[in-house]
Amino acid sequence: MRARIRLATAACVAGVATLGVASTALGNVTHAQDQAPPILNNALADGNTVVGQRVVGGTIFENLFTANSQGRNVALLATKVPSGSDIRLRGRNFSVRFSIQPAARWSDGRPVTADDVIFTWRTYTNPNNQVSSRTGWEEIRSITKQGAKNFTVNFKRPYAPWQEIFSIGGGSYLFPRHILQGKDFNTVWNNGPSAGAPFVGSGPYVLASYTADEQAVLRPNTRYWRTPKPRAGTITHNFVGSTTTAVVQLRTGESNLITPPPSFDLFPQIRAIANTRLQSRSAASWEQLAFNVQAAPLNDRAVRQAIAYAIDRKGVTTDLLGGQVSRLDSALVPLQFGYKPSFAKYTYQPERAKQILRQAGWTQGSDGIFSKGGQRLSLTVKTTAGNVARQRNIQYWTVKARAAGVELVYTPEPASKLFGGTLTNGDYQVANFAFSGSFDPSLTSILVGRQIPTQANDFSGQNYYRYAGADALLNASDEAVDTTRRRQLLGQIQDRLANDVPFLPLYARPNTVAHNRSIAGPDVNPTQAEIYWNVNRWVTGRS
Amino acid sequence: MIAYALRRLLIQLPILLVFSFVMYLVLFHAADPKARLQQIPGARAEDIQRIIEQQGLDKTWYEGYWGWLGDFVQGDWGASFSNKAVGAATLIWDRLPATLELMLVSLLLSILIAAPIGIYSALRRYTPFDYATTAFSYIGFAMPTFLLGLLLQMFAIWSQQNGWAVIPFTIGLILVLATVTTLLKPQRSSRGIAITAGVGFVLIWMSLAFWGSFGGDGQLIFKTAGRFTDAANGSMFSVDHLQHLALPVITLAVVNIAAWSRYQRSATIDVLSADYLRTARAKGLPERTVIGRHALRNALLPLITIVAIDIGFAFSGAVVTETVFGWPGIGRLLYDAALDGDITVAMGVIMLGAFMIVVFNLIADLAYAIADPRIRLA
Predict the structure, then answer these.
(1) Nearest Cβ partner of B49 from A48, A217, A458?
(2) In which region does residue B78 sit, left (phi positive, over 0), alpha (psi from -120 to 50) or beta (all else)?
(3) Which of A355, A402, A536, B214 has the maximal Cβ count within 10 Å?
(4) pLDDT at A21 exceeding the cut of 80
(5) Which residue from B249, B246, B255, B245 is spatially nearest to B114, judged by alpha carbons?
(6) Beta strand pairing call for A150-155 and A93-99
(7) What b/e readout covers B78-103, taking b as 16+ CB neighbours within 10 angstroms?
(8) Most B-contacting residue of A124, A234, A252 (CB-CB within 10 A), to test interface
(9) Which region holds residue B123: left if phi is over 0, alpha if psi is between -120 and 50, else beta?
(10) What backbone phi and psi angles, to 5 degrees, belong to B173?
(11) Please, are residues A258 and A516 in contact by the beta-carbon 8 Å criterion?
């Protein structure tokens, strides 16, 4: 009873009003993850995994901002998200002034300073470091200090997605200069601490033990600088090998939290587990049908528009996915800044599709399928083999599209082949896969001309579409630091995409968490900040 | 014998070389490490291109193979593609104890169960016991490993709420049913049948009478994944570890027992009709001596070969079982390496497995020769 009173008092003091759980003692979080991170340094290309992000992101490592459950950046190590006079734009000179929280310190007690920010920038841009992405970091020309805790970031050009660089939501963190300087960043933290380099972060938890492929245990950081301080016990990540086993562990109570992939067959099973809460929220990763615009017949915009009317996108979300996701009508998801549902006009209208095709010179054959110049409108839809949801969706659309005179042929391929050759070589007509972008609405990483796979870039990139003026418009939106101007440009881009239909957005994939109700506080996050973004506010008790 | 062993190993070297070539080619195309880079969130073409150059992923398959082979024959297994801080050999070496423990315990359990079942089935051919073990073998053969693993996990969940008295109850029921069907044959009445029936009835009675004492209070008896609850401080001799070990061991053992008991049954039947046993009986030796001293030694020979070869396979791990039960062994390492396009690690695991299979094949031959003096190695 006394423990219960103590806990309730602590919760009230901390301002947490909605515990919703009759806690009798502080408990631990045991998180069954379906895969193991290859390494613990999530900044490296080899370590940039969602699993790794969940282990270290927001728990051990922090950044100046984090993203909240609505995807908006909120101050973390910074005193505030810079605005007004903190942001200066003179011609093409763009700079942002930051202040670090006076109390912010690393888990070894050393203060977090501007030197750590400068070190982090240099780490990301060091040509020897095999970081996963330098997006944004290489836009920085210099960082000037104004004291230990204040600094100004000077960009090479106006750069609208600047917040993403300094946010856990963008998948990056600050690193401690006093620990990592002079160390080989490609190896030093791959397996947690190494000789002379303790695994020091500024987050509410520290790494207690790590056994590769098996388990990572985090314990509260007793020196955590922010309030509320962590009130849950340890966080144990068990890497159990499969989603099915993770769900089994939630049922047996071996784990009390899982983060299953967006597998819609799994959700009813999880909801059936007693005392369990399932949350999901659309992330900036979305399913799409990509059209090969460089080869007939999909090089004809009219054909692409007709197919957009022949695909029943809403039907899939209601009939197959049980209304757990909504149809997506843009290259952005609704929570993202600048979202405009430009694709909303493409509802399932087979007659409209037929009309467009006839106007484009196609004639309907005796089998109901259109043809032109001896070529039937029969399109292969390539996708990743073994993905049951995609298989069902395509089979559903195949039946529906036939009513519009379009034949779709489901063609599965191993993921390694689809992403390792088929798409980059343009060896497809229609492909179903997911685009994963940043939560900042910048679309240059997927749509700008230099992302088109070519010999010059080793056939990297995922862009297979180019239209006149695209680069100018996309780059202009990336440079529009004025939010009104940026929203306007993003709207133009989305309208243009909906008109040209280089791809058809289907639905956003959700980030998902299921947890025992004895844990109060998890609030699923749509960004790379993932589930532990507010872990210092979690309270665990016996269910 | 040493010369024979060396000759055998030398003969296998070209085969291992060809095998490594084929496997590298398959992995290079099936587990393209570049495909993994395409799936990094927000990675742009310039990032992917940079990483490809930094990590030397732009090599052709023959450049990659030649480089790997050159290092491998000198004892350098190369750095892991996905963890530059450790070599492939270290990763494999770290996972080897977990795999060997799992495989050897299941092998031992399988031998201890399969050999008596096979021998007894052969001695009591066409009895209910023989039919029951035959049926079990067919089910064991036909059951995919992942399905069996899942069923066992489901049983763990069920037993958590309902207890595990169902196990002795089922065994008791089988024993009683077996004796009932045996009694239908008039000449089959014996003290053994009475004992079997008695044991069966006792098990059924105990299960029903004390059902609530066999768990079912929400405590989990069998852990469904991992090796320890606390991996950093876990002890191999703890109850916790046994709870983790049970289900994967049973999964592997069921398959082994299904196969080996049939081999053992066939081998025993062959031996039972041999001339030397007829001679032994004609000399007036008691049946127990005929079977125990003369038949069993020869009947166990084929099983020695099979077990020795399977020990070799143990070094490759059990990919499916380790994945289903989150067992941190070689099999799961291979699975992850293939998914991540980590060719050096995958090749290390594959070549270790191939080499050990060669070695244990040789050991099987040598053991066979020792056990059976009629065999001469040439």
Answers:
(1) A458
(2) left
(3) A536
(4) no
(5) B255
(6) antiparallel
(7) bbbbbbbbbbbbebbebbbebbbbbb
(8) A252
(9) alpha
(10) -65, -40
(11) no
Instruction: Choose the closest CB to B231 out of A46, A48, A214.
Output: A214
Cβ-contact A350, A309 below 8 angstroms: yes
Place of tokens 């300087």: A181
Rounded-to-10 torsion of CA B127, B132, B135, B141: -120
Average pLDDT over residues B304-313: 83
Strand partners, A540: A519
Angstrom distance (rounded) from CA A102 to CA A79: 8
Higher pLDDT, A407 or A294: A407
Provide the H-helix boundaries in chain B.
Answer: 2-30, 33-37, 45-54, 61-73, 88-123, 128-142, 145-162, 166-183, 191-209, 239-272, 275-282, 287-289, 296-299, 301-314, 319-324, 330-340, 343-371
Model pLDDT for residues B281-293, shown as the tens digit of each residue: 888 888 888 888 8
Tokens of residue A335, six digits: 């929570």
ipTM: 0.85
**How distant is the Cα of B93 from the closest Cα of chain A, in angstroms?**
13
| Cα separations in angstroms, A122 against A46, A127, A167, A171, A518 | 19, 9, 17, 17, 43
For residues B114 and A332, what is the distance between their CA atoms, to the nearest angstrom? 60
What residues of chain A lie within 8 A of the CB of B95, using their CB?
A: 213
More confident site: A436 or A492: A492
Interface of A with B in 68-107 (CB under 8 A): none
List, in sequence order, every residue forming a beta bridge with A144; answer none if it has no partner: A152
DSSP letter for A167, please.
B
A210 vs B contacts (CB less than 8 Å):
232
Helix (H, G, I), strand (E, B) or coil at A376: strand
Query: Domains of chain B: which residue ranges?
Result: 2-88
CA angle centred on B135, ends B131 and B139, rounded to 5°: 170
Q: What pTM value is reported for the model? A: 0.86
Token pair, residue A108, equals: 């070894």
Name the nearest CA neighbour of A168 among A41, A68, A55, A67. Answer: A67
Query: B171 pLDDT exceeds 60?
Result: yes
Closest CA to A134 of A170, A158, A169, A99: A170
Statement: residue A455 has pLDDT above 80: no
Inter-chain contact B55–A130, Cβ cutoff 8 Å? yes
Query: What are the residues facing A272 on neighbouring strands?
Result: none
- Inter-chain touch A420–B32, beta carbons under 8 Å: yes
Alpha carbon distances (Å) from B303 to A20, A82, B111: 61, 74, 9
> pLDDT digits over B202-255, tens only?
999 988 888 777 777 778 888 999 999 998 888 999 999 999 999 999 999 999
Instruction: Tell me how crowded residue A425 is: count the other CB atoms within 10 A of its CB.
Output: 10
The answer to whether A176 and A116 are in contact (CB under 8 A) is: yes
Compute CA distances B18 → A472, B31, B62, B354, whole Å.
54, 19, 14, 12
Q: Which residue of A has its CA nearest to B45?
A: A461
Q: Quick check: B84 and B318 in contact, CB under 8 A?
A: no
**Residue corresponding to tokens 């104890």:** B97
Q: Contacts of residue A254 in chain B, CB cutoff 8 Å? A: 220, 223-225
Best of B27, B29, B47, B243 to substitute, by most chain A Cβ atoms within 10 angstroms, is B47
Residue A186 is predicted with a pLDDT of 94
Q: What is the dihedral of CA B154, B155, B161, B164, to 10 degrees?
A: 180
Exposed (0-12), middle (13-18) or buried (19+): which is A240, by Cβ within 10 Å?
buried
* List of long-range contacts for B240-245, beta carbons under 8 Å, 24+ apart: B245/B101, B245/B102, B245/B105
Roughly how many angstroms between the first and final C-alpha of chain B, as a whole number?
8
Count of CB pairs separated by less than 8 Å, A with B: 194
Check if the beta carbon of residue B169 is closer than 8 Å to that of residue B204: yes
